[in-house]
Amino acid sequence: MRKVIALLSAAAAVAALTGVSAGTASGAAAPGSAGQGKLVWSSCNDTTTPALQCALLDVPVDYAHPNGAKIKIKLNRLPATAPKDKQQGPILLNPGGPGDSGLWMPAYISGKLPKDVASTYDWIGFDPRGTNGSEPHVVCDAHYFDAERPDYQVSQGTSKAWLEKAAGYAADCAAGWSWLLPHMTTVDSARDMDGIRRALGASKINFYGGSWGTSLGSTYGQLFPSHVRRMVLDSIVGPTISWYDHNILQDKEHQRRFEAFAAWTAKADSVYHLGTDAATVEKAYYQVEKDLRSNPVGAAPAPGKIGPAEFEDTFYGGGYNFLRWPQMATALSGYLTRHDTRPLNIAYNRYAAPGADDSTFPAYNAAQCTENAWPRDWEFWKKDQAKVDAAAPFYTYNNMWYNAACMFWPYQGNTAGRMKITGKGLPPVLLFQATEDAATPYEGGLAMHDALPGSKLVVQKGGSFHEILFHGNACLDDTFTAYLRDGSLPQGGGRIAKTCAPEPDPTPVYVTPQSTLATKNATPPVPLRPTDPEAVHGVLR
């Protein structure tokens, strides 16, 4: 019955091309400790980090009704080991998303710091409400990302298919989760963080957040400034820009990163044989995409086939993490110069194959679609996105369809826009931003610095990692360490307090296939672990 309702709603939405009727999203609900759960810690049974402890915390579904229905937030903790008089309290960690799990972060980030600093904090990871190990884990359409998906390019006549798909997804979410979706905004997650603080018995918390986690952290600071001790924001979402306009900035920055990849590949023509100038390499990319329209290749052990949409999904992650460039260039080179599809198959399974369900996509939509108003007229999208595509064809339509469910989302976005961030009452916040970040463009770091009086902005000039800490750059990591050690901040004045150099480009190498992924009996693909150097964090698309 749920599926029937979803399909009927989708059909009506597509016919109208204006979206479904609106409900009211949760936003400014009164804070309070009523309905507060308690933490009972037990071993996570993690053999790598035996000291890691796990717990579930009850929090209200709706903070306007704190004594009403409850859901559970999953947390873990790596306790401080320093003497009590040296301990600095809990530091909550969030990698972005919206909705990505933070449970991998306590062991990983503390392990990147000197022991005399790491040992002074209780490291707290958590799964945001409705995601991952929290209860419930929201699933709208477990097969939404299955291959082969419709072509992203509107020139291929797939717009109707994508509109039906996006509207169907929004309707399916509403059919199963109308009681929770309006309460999965950034504000709700920030209130959950304060619930975690209270359950920990702490008067103040420290915080590190990357990508959407910078929006979560700044929102927490706006709601609860007196509860913040130290805060670090890495790869920053501008505090006022609409999510629709943020995506347009992303499109333009991803185009620049794609052109940088093409130029890097062209310099390594002796390795990849794809041409000695960037324009020729770009043509090679689009040639492979064109070939896959008529001749998709096998995706096994992932289901389905690799067509043009799956091909694009395999490559856009290079804008987040350039350590993927050798594998990406190998995939193009293998296909065009050796008639070998194995490198493409391996890259797809490594970077883009879907998981068992739609993962954090419900949380992504629940936050972005309701935190500000979105255009609901397909004719507007079609004309406006065509202008963007003319300047940034690499990513525009991929990104557009990823966000198209907001056109039909059953809960109207806040017409007043996202919560205004003023920084009133906050201690000095440490900000990190790369100039070439495609997912959270540089403008966002400048805007957050301007919005937070007393903040200090560290800029990696020429840097392109999304989330720039913990990649072995001493200039960045030592600044983070000093702040956590004793609150020390860069002393530079002006908008930029400190500038760091970028990491060097990866060494060009043809990645010789050593996997049996292309065989039907191969082991199913395992997504990259968040700690893998090629992983991307906080996939804010």
Structure description:
It is built from 17 helices and twelve strands. With 541 residues, the protein is of the alpha/beta class. Helix 5 crosses helix 6. The longest helix has 25 residues. The N terminus is likely disordered.
In short:
The chain is built from 17 helices and twelve strands.
What descriptors fit this protein?
two-stranded antiparallel ribbon; single chain; 541 residues; disordered N terminus; 17 helices
Mean pLDDT score: 92
Q: What is the H-and-E element order?
A: HEEEEHHEHHEHEHHHEEHHHHHHEHEHE
Radius of gyration, CA atoms, in whole angstroms: 23 Å
Q: What is the β-strand count?
A: 12
Helix/strand structural class: alpha/beta
**Spans with pLDDT under 50 lasting ≥5 residues?**
1-32
Question: So what's the overall shape?
Answer: globular
Give the termini separation.
32 Å
Number of helices: 17
Strand order of the largest sheet: 1-2-3-5-4-6-7-10-11-12
Indicate the proportion of strand residues: 5-15%
What does the oligomeric state look like here?
single chain
Level of helix content?
A: 25-40%
The biggest beta sheet reads: 10 strands, mixed
Write the layout of secondary structure elements.
Layout: H1 2-16, E1 42-43, E2 53-60, E3 70-78, E4 90-94, H2 105-111, H3 115-118, E5 122-127, H4 159-177, H5 186-200, E6 205-211, H6 212-223, E7 228-236, H7 243-267, H8 269-272, H9 278-294, E8 297-298, E9 305-306, H10 308-316, H11 325-337, H12 342-351, H13 361-371, H14 378-391, H15 396-402, E10 430-434, H16 442-451, E11 456-460, H17 474-486, E12 498-500
Parallel strand pairs: 4-5, 4-6, 6-7, 7-10, 10-11, 11-12
Antiparallel strand pairs: 1-2, 2-3, 3-5, 8-9
Helix pairs in contact: 1-4, 5-6, 7-9, 7-14, 10-12, 11-12
